[in-house]
Amino acid sequence: MSTEEKKFDTQNLPTKTYFWPLKRYQDLYNSSLSDPEAFWAKHSDVLSWEKPWERVLDWNPPYARWFVGGKLNMSYQCVDRHAKSWRKSKVAIYWEGENGDTQTISYSDLYENVNRYASVLKKLGIGKGDKVTVYLPMIPEMVYILLACNRVGAVHNVIFSGFSSQSIADRVNDSGSKMIVTASGGHRRGKILPLKEIVDEAVKSTPTIEHVLVIKYTGHEVVMDPTKDVWAHDLLKDADKYVAPEAMESTDPLFILYTSGTTGKPKGILHGTGGYGVWACNTLKWAFKPTDESVFWCTADVGWITGHTYVVYAPLALGLTQVIYEGAPDYPSVDRWWEIIDKYGVSIFYTSPTAIRMFMRHGEELPAKHDLSTLEMLGSVGEPINPEAWEWYYKNIGHENCPISDTWWQTETGGFMITPCPGIQSFPLKPGSATLPLPGVDPVVVDAEGKILPANETGFIAIRKPWPGIMLGIYNGDELYKKTYWSRFPGWYCPGDFSMKDSDGYLWLLGRADEVIKVAGHRISTAELEHALVGHSSVAEAAVASRPDEVKGEAIVVFVTLKKNVEASAEVKRELTHHLRSAIGTIATPEEIIFVEKLPKTRSGKIMRRLLKAVANEVPIGDTTTLDDETSVNEARAAFDELL
Ligand code: 6R9
Prior knowledge:
This protein is of the alpha/beta class. 52% of the residues are buried.
């Protein structure tokens, strides 16, 4: 991507949110680093503590434990404290289904539903520390169930509804979940996603599952196994109206969320309660400056971290009104999202560069048909935003009135790390740069040896201090946790992204420095894809590379060598595509499958990924002197050329 700098001086924009001098940010930022204890002590008051904490931070590298000794419950933050206040009749959620169904859910409705679902979970034997896998579409029950899990002290493990049976089984087994919560189905572009059926296949190999709790959403017939499956609506009839929230330690786990790393197996990122909650709320306030009048819309699915933090926890804990939409952005028409902004008067809109680029393709006439004048703030997440997409977004959606918070962060960081923060002050934005670190975040750009680089040089980003949102660790993976994040630059957290700091101190996040790719903002690793591919009976060896894609950011390009006696054909390609989708999920759909005789390898037998990437991208190959066998490079290239 281009890092060409272009300044937008938002300071002079007629936006009521821009009135603080830069000094306010600098003072707040400096105080967060010079006296973190005092800083976080003050900022922990966004949450209501049942028992006050004793110590702000226990830092035993690489483990950070925040607000030690404190007790609280996250469902209490998101529900009880609002339902007991003037906010009880305030709208918590405007929900809109893909088929046009709508629900307006107040904080007292939310309170009632969360309590009833907590009672159902309890009656099914779910209690403190139990793991509950959640495989749901974007319906209000997604929120009820997550908060009901918090309420009884259970740890939720959400799996995005595009993942396959095999992916569910792997995550259920790694987490040791006792229960799966799913729905009969969901809607996606006019079709029914058969969620219950996908779960049925998964539970054939999940010995720890005692119950599958099924929410009737789509009306189609589903098969219920009387030994395990229970309908939510049956149990809700006798549910208690109130379940006392379990007092959790601040350092107790809140959830596990699996995400891709460099190994073939996704890692269970484990987040805690108090530190995560404090981080979620403060980061949302800093980056988007919400008020009680705001209508917030984060378009992410709760299946990803963005949905966890900025659909469920932060907006609800802050008592905001938000929009949740079930379906695809372009269904039934490509202006569905603009229609929703218009209908609900959305004021803060947070989405991904992939979505923006998709809309750009359809032209500026579509958003122009709708009244978007309620918008005050825009946001972007998931991948670097290219300056063209930034400008289009700024002009056609924000009508040059709304700052864009380009939020850089990760599943592991719990919340935003580097982003413009209109909630603190204003400063000129640069399209394509996530700008400056949030309070408490101490980033440096370093070379491979960990030496801090001068301005304008590209290297790795590293974070020198723990912050409240940092994960507790990897579930079942202490060694992996140390190795993945802390071994490269000892004592510093290593996110795995390339970055550059310009002469104004602005950070540019330039994509992953490892074998993780982001397809439409969704994180997946080449190792995971390769592992799935070699599980197919026709495949001898596989290697996966990515190629920049105009809309999706990156696209998957697969190189395979076939087993003896298997003929390369369009049919095998179709089979492999199908195989990847059923082994991992729809996000694993390859853009291109290239058959080769041999994979290019180094003398020590390692696949030359740089070279495959070059082939997939048609760029000069560079130094190939460490290749084992030159001919295979040419073969790969020839095969690629044939496809063009
Ligand atoms: C929140 C989320 C994390 C990776 C991260 C980076 C990329 C996310 C970005 C961005 C540039 C942004 N990323 N936001 N890159 N600018 N604003 O996406 O979490 O799915 O764990 O992915 O996404 O490469 O390392 P996750």
